[in-house]
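Hi,

I'm pasting everything inline rather than attaching a file, because the server keeps stripping attachments. The sequence lines come first, and each chain or strand is labelled.
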Amino acid sequence: MLTGGGDCPGLNAVIRAIVRKGVAEYGHEFVGYRDGWRGPLENDSRPLGVPEVRGILPRGGTILGSSRTNPVKEEGGVERIVENLKGAEVDGLIAIGGEDTLGAATTLSDRDVKVVGVPKTIDNDLGATDYTFGFDTAVNIAMEAIDRLHTTAESHKRALICEVMGRHAGWIAWHAGIAGGANVILIPEIEFDVELVCEYIDRRFDSQYSPIIVVAEGAQPKGGTAATRDGSLDEFGHERLGGIAHWLEDQVRERTGHDARATVLGHVQRGGTPTAFDRVLATRFGLHAIDAADAGAWGKMTALRGTEIQLVPLQEATAELKTVPESLYREAEVFFG
Ligand code: F6P
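And the predicted assembly:
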């Protein structure tokens, strides 16, 4: 198996569940490829038995390492992986990853590599599954940060702006904003009017409370563009987002005359121990993934539909980016200002 893309809490729980059930019930043997697709590309793997997965359930990150290596972009990359898997007598591959990792898995599956996918991302933006593990942990970390921002904002009568991750989906912002009692939530799906944001801020100050603004890293003002770090792209063509909170900080200060400060949560949201929800979802995904591999259900990925884990075609992982619907966003508006 391998873990690819940005890491997230719960990856180790998946690995543990696959190995524990795979060994105990099916008598399979496992190797773990290191650093996502770099592992099978360079034949870099490590043994993965029950002793290696002891104690890893609550640990954040991934014991296998991760990377954003794109084997499809690499000259002859797919052929090399096919050869290396054959050479190592690997019967099947379980790829644990988001849109990018599972997209590459789909390409390999189309070339007859036996792959089962497990979806992960803190962004929760994969259309095929109701939830991805890692998301709940990220939301809880952001919520706790917002709770803390409220008290310091009140002490100094400041507007505090909290930037959260999520790339082009506002799920973390929306959930953390609601759970943390934010006074404004800004998401990538709906361009925001900075004048209106400042009105909300003024209104909040008028009621003798200090506003907390939660902004998704991909959010953008009307007619503007998303803030990016340096315009560079990763191997899958994604820009590095970030900086909208600092832009807003200046706008709020200039337009309202109130003091404002930005907090960018960044990778804190991806680190540390997973919540119970994520441990359970990750474990169930792992159990169903090894069942699928044992049954020869290749080209499929695990997905949560309601409370059931189902197997869906791997292509569905990348078919649709799941974004926050406008109606859901509007539900939060009653708390703005
Ligand atoms: O997809 C997960 C994610 O954390 C996004 O929310 C964020 O935009 C991106 O990865 C950050 O990537 P990196 O870890 O490469 O900085």
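The first helix runs from residue 11 to 24.

If the labels don't parse on your end, tell me and I'll reformat.
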